[in-house]
Hints:
The chain has three domains: 3-124, Up-down Bundle (Four Helix Bundle (Hemerythrin (Met), subunit A)); 127-180, Orthogonal Bundle (Arc Repressor Mutant, subunit A); 210-286, Arc Repressor Mutant, subunit A (Orthogonal Bundle). It is 69% helix and 0% strand. It has 16 helices and no strands. The termini are far apart.
Amino acid sequence: xxxxxxxxxxxxxxxxxxxxxxxxxxxxxxxxxxxxxxxxxxxxxxxxxxxxxxxxxxxxxxxxxxxxxxxxxxxxxxxxxxxxxxxxxxxxxxxxxxxxxxxxxxxxxxxxxxxxxxxxxxxxxxxxxxxxxxxxxxxxxxxxxxxxxxxxxxxxxxxxxxxxxxxxxxxxxxxxxxxxxxxxxxxxxxxxxxxxxxxxxxxxxxxxxxxxxxxxxxxxxxxxxxxxxxxxxxxxxxxxxxxxxxxxxxxxxxxxxxxxxxxxxxxxxxxxxxxxxxxxxxxxxxxxxxxxxxxxxxxxxxxxxxxxxxxxxxx
Length: 315
C-alpha cells in the first residue's frame, strides 16, 4: 500500500460538520464511560462512531506531518511519522468530550503533536529518555532563544532552570540526556574506517588466555593457603604483600599488631617458607603418578653340567 494511494483514500471521506462531531462524540463517550457490562447496542454504536470519526480526520494527522514536520521528515520516514500521528488521532477521538464546547481539531492538534514527539524521542535516540525530560527538551530551546534576546547573553544554568520550572539537578540531567550518542559503526574517515576500528582493543591469543587462567588458578590456590593460617598471620601477610590494597612496611605492621619490626620480618620469613613448602606439595600432588610396571620374571635354566651329574649318579 503506497502512501499516495492511502492519502487519496483518506481525502475521499467527507469532513464532519460540527453537529456530526457532537453526535459521534456523544456516542463514543456513552460507550467508553458506561459501566460494565456494556449493552451490545451501545457498544456497536460507539465503535461505529469511533471508526467514522477517525476516518473523517485522517487528513488532519497527515496534514500535520506534511506542514509542520519538515525537519523531522529529513531524519525519519514520513510514513512512520504519519503512523505516529494517527495513533495520536485515535487517542484524541477516544477522549473528545463534546460537552466542553470546543472543536475536535483544536484538541486533536495537541494529541497528534505529542504522539509524533514521543515517537521521535523513543525511536529517534539510541537510548530512550523519560517522557518528562522530552517535554523539557522541547521547551528548553524556546526558553534559551527568548532569554538570549532579553539578556543579550547566554543564559546561565540557574536562569534556565528557573524559567523551566525545575531544579538545577533536574536540568543537568535533562541536558545530559540531550547529548547525542555516537555509534561504533559510524564512518569517521575518508578511507571508510568506522569509529569502532579506531578504538584500541586487545585480542588475547589462545596461549595468552591459557596463561591467564593458569595465573588465576595459582592465585586462588595461594588465597586458600593463606586462609589456612592464623588470623594474625593472615593480617601480616595481607598488609606486607598489599593483598587488600594497602601495603605497609614491617614497622607499620608491628605498630598495628603490637610487635617489633624485627619480629614481623622474622615472622614473614617463616610464613614465606611455610607457604612455599605447601605450594611445592600442591604441585607434587597435581603431577600425575607414574606407575612403573614390574619386571617380568625370567625362568631359571638348568645348566648342562647339572644334568650330566644327575645321570651319572643314577647309573
